[in-house]
Amino acid sequence: MSKPKKMTPKDKLIRFVAFFLINVVFQASVIANDKHGAFPYFDFKPDSVFDKKCLFDGKEVNLYHKKVNESDRERFLDKEFQEIVKNLDDGAWIILYKNNQEPGKVFLMFEVKSKFLNGQYKEYHPSGLVKVLRSYENGKKEGIFALWSQEGLLASVMVFNKNIAQVDLSLNREGKVEAQTNHYGRNPSTKVLKRPKRLKKQYRYLLNFSEKLPPLDCST
What we know:
This protein is an alpha+beta fold and 220 residues long. It has helices at 9-33, 73-86; strands at 52-56, 59-63, 91-96, 106-113, 116-124, 130-137, 140-141, 143-148, 154-161, 164-171, 177-182, 189-197, 216-217.
C-alpha cells in the first residue's frame, strides 16, 4: 500500500485559498437571503437597507425591519434597543410585534436625533392600547413617564428632570394616588396615603390617555 503524498507548502496555500473563497461565497449567499441581516460575519451598514417608510397616525415614520415577540419585549429593551438606536438615522421609528395572526401590530414608536432618543417614546400592549409614554432629550429622561395597565388604566406617573427622577406616583384602579415616592436628595422616601387623593391637575389628562393604536399604512 502506497503512502499518502505529503502536502507541499504550495498545496497547503492552494487548499487554504480555496476554502477561504468557498466560505466567503457561502456567507455572502446567507446574507443575501437573510433580510434581517442577522448573519454576523460581515461589517456592513446595519438595518437601514431593509427599512421602509410608513404612515403612522398620519405621520411619516421609518419601519424597522426587526419584529419582537411579546415574550421577548423586556429582554429586547434591556439588551438590544439602545444599540439599535445608535445605528438609526434621525426621525420617527416604529417596531412591530411578531405576530402572524395579526400582522402590523405596533410594539414601539420612538424618535431619534443624533444617535440618541429625542422626543416622544411610546410602547403599546398587544391589544393596541398604549402601555408607556415617555419623553427624552439627547438620550436622557425628561418630563413625564407614564404607565398604563392592559385594561387601559393609568397605573403610575413619574417625573424626571435631566435624567433624574423627581417624584413617583402610584395610582389605584379609580385613578387616585395611593402612594408617592419623593426622590429628592440621596434617600428617596415613600409615603402610602391613608386616603387616596386626586391626581394633580397637570397630570389628569393622562387618565384619559389610553389611546387605541393609530392606523399604520406601509403601502406607499
